[in-house]
Design a protein that fits this description.
The two termini are 43 Å apart. Helix 2 crosses helix 3. The longest helix is centred in the first third of the chain and has 23 residues. The protein has 2 domains: 97 residues, Double Stranded RNA Binding Domain, CATH 3.30.160.250; 38 residues, no CATH class. The chain is α+β, with helices and mostly antiparallel strands and 163 residues long. The protein is 45% helix and 15% strand. Strand 2 and strand 3 form a beta hairpin. The protein has a 4-stranded antiparallel β-sheet with strand order 3-2-1-4.
């Protein structure tokens, strides 16, 4: 019990430090864009591992074989739920301030970054029509350039997205 409480305190402290660094941007590291933080109820399972549910996110539930995997799966599940809601332009529910739970359950805050989730999981190709001068098109085709690859690289550079 003390170990779980200590882990929870360390996790909350780590989140607080990341948020402060992102706000004042003095870390020298890449900007951290945390979009959401939701409380989750972790329930130890008899066979080992944890069941994880998010009462604020209907039907959002996952599990893991140990605490580390459960936290990772919780980030993934909540990010996917929120990403889907954003895509459907649904109202995002506010996170609860407190959650009731029974022993041996515990509540832990889970970060959900839908921007990162979107970049890592939404690999659909989208067809775009563009207009360039005929001479430039001829030169590029003669050089066997990949128009899509060049456009993707240029867009990432313009938007400051790492490759």
């Amino acid at each position: 019990m003390i170990g779980a409480m200590l882990l929870l305190c360390l996790f909350i402290l780590s989140l607080a430090i990341r948020v402060i660094r992102a706000i004042i941007n003095t870390s020298g590291e890449e900007d951290i864009e945390m979009k959401y933080v939701y409380p989750a109820i972790f329930t130890p399972l008899a066979e080992g591992g944890y069941d994880v549910c998010f009462p604020d996110l209907p039907y959002c539930r996952t599990c893991g074989d140990d605490l580390a995997e459960s936290l990772e799966m919780a980030e993934d599940a909540s990010s996917m739920w929120l990403w889907d809601a954003e895509n459907k332009k649904e109202t995002i529910p506010p996170p609860s301030e407190t959650l009731s739970h029974e022993k041996p359950q515990f509540v832990n805050l889970v970060r959900a970054d839908t921007d990162t989730y979107r970049r890592e999981n939404d690999k659909r190709a989208v067809k775009k029509t563009l207009t360039i001068p005929a001479w430039l098109n001829a030169e590029a085709e003669n050089a066997h350039l990949n128009f899509s690859g060049i456009l993707q690289s240029a867009l990432k550079d313009c938007l400051g997205i790492e490759r």
